[in-house]
Amino acid sequence: MKFHHVGITVEDIDSGLQMWKEIFIDVLEQLSVKKCFDPLQEVELCLFEAGNLKIELVSGEKVKNFLRRGTKIYHICFEVDNLERKIENLINKGCILVSPPKPAVLFEGRRVAFLITPMGFLIELLEA
Cβ neighbours of residue 81 under 8 Å, at least 6 residues apart? Predict the structure, then answer.
């Protein structure tokens, strides 16, 4: 399992991205941004790098409750070699599968799955 990115909730992708650009202008001068709407996840997404960190902005109805509660860190994503095996392993360690594997537009169809950890935070697994 290798760290891939952190997902952050925003009201609006464009204003969220603009805020990141204004705060981290020195890091984001050569910003490579990938934006899309994923109908299977029902969210608008934006992925970019800030220094060594990949950040995914997430917006849409699916994250409105997180935003209302003031939650900004939505999930932590890990890239895994064997998605099904890692899901099974994490379930055996007390995690709960909340979104089974499905193709992700942002990652060229590679599958993703979401689990809640026993500590109560959301993790995304991205198929390598």
Answer: 128
Using a cut of 0.85, tell me whether the model's pTM lies above it.
Answer: yes
With H, G, I as helix, E, B as strand and everything else as coil, classify residue 110.
coil
**Which 3 state secondary structure label does DSSP give 57?**
strand
Closest CA to 83 of 120, 109, 121, 58: 109
Q: Evaluate whether 5 touches 50 at the Cβ level (below 8 Å).
A: no
CB atoms within 10 A of CB 8: 20
Q: Which domain holds residue 79?
A: 2-127
Domain at 7, CATH number? 3.10.180.10
Structure token digits, residue 110:
């590679």
| β-bridge partners, 38 | 43
Per residue in 84-111, pLDDT (tens digit) is: 999 999 999 999 999 999 999 999 999 9
Q: How many domains are contained in the chain?
A: 1
